[in-house]
Automatic annotation (TrEMBL), chain A:
Domain (B12-binding N-terminal) ranges: 1-87
Pfam families, per the entry: B12-binding (PF02310), B12-binding_2 (PF02607)
Keyword Metal-binding annotated: yes
Protein's UniProt keywords contain Transmembrane helix: no
Keywords on record: Cobalt, Metal-binding
Domain B12-binding, chain residue ranges per copy: 87-208
PROSITE patterns according to UniProt: B12_BINDING, B12_BINDING_NTER
InterPro entries: Cbl-bd_cap, Cobalamin-bd, Cobalamin-bd_sf, Met_Synthase/Corrinoid, Meth_synthase_dom
Protein's name according to its UniProt entry: Cobalamin-binding protein
Superkingdom per UniProt: Bacteria
Organism for this UniProt entry: Acetobacterium fimetarium
From TrEMBL, chain B:
Gene3D superfamilies referenced in this protein's UniProt entry, alphabetically: 3.20.20.210
A Pfam family: URO-D
Lineage: superkingdom: Bacteria
UniProt xrefs under InterPro entries: Methanogen_methyltrans, UROD/MetE-like_sf, Uroporphyrinogen_deCOase
Protein name: Uroporphyrinogen decarboxylase
Start and end residues of each Uroporphyrinogen decarboxylase (URO-D) domain: 99-302
Length: 208, 325
């Protein structure tokens, strides 16, 4: 197995204690840092697809994301100065009144693994805070907001509409248990995803 | 006309119920039983395990707080140092109201029911956050096994107190095992970590006079049903429509029954109407049928989040009983 293939397998199987050494070995063998990063992003794409298909579960996705972050740590000093992600920055948070952070955290990990820089505003984020974060951070291309409760769906609508009304050039992706593609379209979101794996795919698609 | 209890038993044993079981009607909850501190609307509390919970005003429930300042367990390998079970023994005077309630229940009519929450899986993530708890199952399995054993010991100690004081014949036990779309862990992982825990807990209750175990998990968990049966669950309450309940009834009816198939999110919201509730209830009753099925919202107790929803759901079930029985 090639060094880069080994890294891919270690990320996909969430071997976070072994990835760093494998990435270092790949670098030592002359593999370009960008190629290793691309391989790990591809691995996380596979992980996301398997999650969406019900073949793997949350723990497997979490340990894969952790493995990737260990690999990225080794790569960072070897990346060019402008190593900021080409996909831009994603501002993420749950909307006002909603404290459910598990799904949001999974989406955050998967979107980061897909190549975005993440600015995580946490939970219970008022609509204005999303706009402030877009202005305060560089190259924000995407905002991801979620709500798990039927009672916070109006807050999701307010968040999307406030972001859109700001005139800032960003795409907005939404999700959460009660959210449907129809509701996402109705409130003016650019995209909807039913789970973390699909969110990463949709995120890449709508900022392309 | 059968009593509520008889009608429930006919439903779950594949007999001849004379109407649909109406949501939680067969369970008479002895909520006076002493238990750990529970957060209420608008409150932030620290419970007996040291877990901080907050419930924002106007929202539907409380949440554990897991920032660095509040997380009880930051490193699973150090759980023995940081996780300290409270006493399961409460002063006798704390039991008085519950005992009085238990004694007043007509057990031919209803099941004297004790409410137990949170469950073992929930406790692991309340202590250390969902992400840490789920990763620890992979990364430090031995410590997770030991922590789960410790949590089970506490549950069994509390179970003994419930049994000694109240002699319940039904336990309504919470432990959410999945999201709307999938179980949180794989069936294999569930079998390794949580099946043995619940075999001990539910086995203990059943060995001590509890006739009925109703387990709440308002989620997808169809892939865990064989384990539910093995651990002794009689009724899975909270089964969401994503589980394909008619298929589950066909496959497992007679071994376990299913309560729900009406997702709370689609009937229990600020804009609810009796028409919406009737439509969803009718769909559920028609697709699931009369046996091994109890229609009701997936919500985990005998009330709705919005005034009138629970009662309207009862009325819808009454109408469906008239149509179908």
């Amino acid at each position: 197995m090639s060094k880069i293939e080994e890294v891919k397998v270690l990320v996909e199987t969430g071997k976070s204690k072994k990835v760093a050494a494998a990435v270092q070995e790949a670098l030592d063998a002359g593999v370009k840092a960008q190629d290793i990063l691309d391989a790990m992003v591809a691995s996380m794409g596979v992980v996301g697809d398997k999650f969406s298909a019900g073949e793997i579960f949350v723990p497997e996705m979490l340990i894969a994301a952790k493995a990737m972050s260990k690999g990225v740590e080794v790569l960072k000093p070897h990346m060019a100065g402008d190593s900021a992600s080409s996909l831009g920055t994603c501002v993420i948070g749950t909307v006002a009144g909603d404290l459910h952070d598990i799904g949001k955290n999974l989406v955050s990990m998967m979107i980061e693994s897909a190549g975005f820089t993440i600015v995580d505003l946490g939970v219970d984020v008022p609509a204005d805070k999303f706009v402030e974060a877009i202005k305060a951070n560089e190259n924000v291309t995407l905002v991801a907001c979620s709500g798990l409760l039927t009672t916070t769906m109006p807050a999701l609508k307010e968040a999307v509409q406030t972001i859109k009304a700001s005139g800032l050039d960003v795409k907005v992706i939404v999700g959460g248990a009660p959210v449907t593609p129809e509701y996402a379209a109705e409130i003016g979101a650019d995209g909807y995803a039913p789970d973390a794996g699909s969110a990463a795919v949709k995120a890449k698609e709508i900022v392309a | 006309m059968l009593t509520k209890r008889q009608n429930l038993m006919e439903t779950i044993k594949g007999g001849k119920p004379d109407r649909f079981v109406k949501q939680y009607e067969f369970m008479n909850f002895i909520m006076e039983a002493p238990m750990g501190a529970m957060v209420g609307p608008g409150q932030t509390i620290v419970n007996d395990w040291g877990i901080t919970f907050t419930w924002p005003e106007g929202q539907l429930g409380g949440f554990p707080v897991h920032d660095d300042e509040h997380k009880v367990l930051k490193d699973i390998t150090e759980w023995r140092k940081f996780v300290k079970a409270p006493s399961a023994i409460y002063p006798e005077e704390r039991w008085a109201a519950a005992i009085e309630h238990a004694n007043a229940i007509d057990r031919n009519e209803e099941f004297a029911t004790c409410f137990v929450a949170p469950g073992i899986f929930e406790m692991t993530h309340h202590l250390m956050s969902m992400e840490d708890a789920l990763m620890a199952l992979y990364e430090e399995p031995e410590d997770m096994h030991d922590l789960i054993d410790y949590l089970v010991e506490y549950e069994l100690a509390y179970a003994k107190e419930l049994i000694d004081h109240l002699h319940p014949d039904c336990i309504f036990h919470h432990d959410d095992w999945g999201s709307q779309r999938s179980s949180f862990v794989s069936p294999e992982m569930f079998e390794e970590f949580f099946l043995p825990a619940y075999k001990k807990i539910y086995g203990f209750y059943k060995a001590n006079g509890v006739e009925l175990i109703v387990h709440h998990s308002d989620s997808y968990a169809a892939n865990l049903v064989p384990y539910m049966i093995e651990m002794g669950i009689d009724i899975w309450q909270g089964v969401m429509t994503t589980n394909n309940v008619p298929e589950l009834i066909k496959k497992y009816g007679g071994q376990i029954s299913f309560m729900g198939d009406i997702d709370s999110g689609v009937i229990d919201f600020p804009g609810w109407t009796p028409e919406i509730i009737f439509e969803k209830t009718k769909e559920a009753c028609e697709r699931c049928g009369k046996l091994y099925f109890i229609p009701g919202a997936s919500h985990g107790l005998n009330f709705g989040c919005f005034p009138g929803v629970y009662e309207s759901n009862d009325e819808a079930i009454d109408k469906m009983s008239k149509e179908m029985f």
